[in-house]
Amino acid sequence: MKNKYQLDPSSKKFVCPECEKRRFVRMIDELGNYISDEFGRCDRSNSCGYYKYPEKSDSDVKIDLTQKKVAKLADKDGPPSSIPQCYVQQSLKGYSINSFYQFLSNMFTKQQIDNVFDTYKVGTSKLWGGATVFWQISIDFEVRTGKVIKFDNLTGKRIKEPRPLMTWAHTILKLEEFNLKQVLFGEHLLTKFPQKTVCIVESEKTAVIMAIKHPNQLWLATGGEAEFKAEKLKALTGRKVVIFPDTDFHKNWAERSVSISKQLNLNLVVSPYLVNCTIALDQKKGYDLADLNQINMDLSMLIPEKQPSTNLNLERLMQRNPNLFELIRVFDLDAIEK
Ligand SMILES: [Zn+2]
Known about the structure:
The protein is an alpha/beta fold. It has 2 domains: 1-79, no CATH class; 85-273, no CATH class. 28% of the residues lie in helices and 14% in strands. The strands form 3 sheets. A 4-stranded antiparallel sheet has the order 1-2-3-4, with no helix packed on it. The protein has a 4-stranded antiparallel sheet with strand order 5-6-7-8. A 4-stranded parallel sheet has the order 10-9-11-12, with helices on both faces. Strand 6 (131-137) and strand 7 (143-149) form a beta hairpin. The termini are far apart. Bound molecules: zinc ion. The site of zinc ion (ZN) has 9 residues, from loops.
């Protein structure tokens, strides 16, 4: 026989009878009526843990008529679920098995990496022998979830064969009826750095690398091509924002920027820098700013040693200063900011 009562599948939370936080999921009968408010389960499973379910023999369970009935099945318009902060804190260690941390160790100092991991809240999961957790913390400091990704230690590329090694913190924690509402990776830093120009990239990895290389800007990531959408950019209201799409989605993001700007009354500036830098390459391969080091090396090899050119000065400068592309990039960014 099917259980007569179940936990409310909508995301509505009530005040917990034990800890008095608004994290209590009540129970409903098969018609969607709430039953008395002692029955249910507290969301704060590790800090409170209160739960009480009606006995099968309970014939005197009362229906609570002061509450509106719950519409059948999950109500995705409900408030977002969140993960207790303690999980974030617990994950901020174990970097010796964190493949993204190990990859960055070839490029940056320990202090630089520790600093950016702490600022952005990048943690470690023991999954797959050491994966990276990119926590998504909202501007209100709610932990909405964490994206868990396994990278290759040496190349820093995501492991995609034989299957993509990627999952979510709320999936690992087996949080039931979790109402996932993603936010930008790094969104919680908007209040910490109110003056910085916000730069939007697609991947969390790129945001972290750029944050080390260009700390004067605030780098946030959508976490996916399709995640560049108004709902996710709401927190940027009132900010100066520059968008750096991957080369394969430059046109698409540029078009979407126009409608999102209107919708949110923002002024999203799409940087042409990356497409300009990769003009000689197959842009369908989807280059991003983190790929530029490699690209710069390739391009500098393309420049002939002795050939008359109107750009001779630039060439000489390039030979003396291999970081020129880096400088141009910064200037480009500065030009946008003015
Ligand atoms: Zn509680």
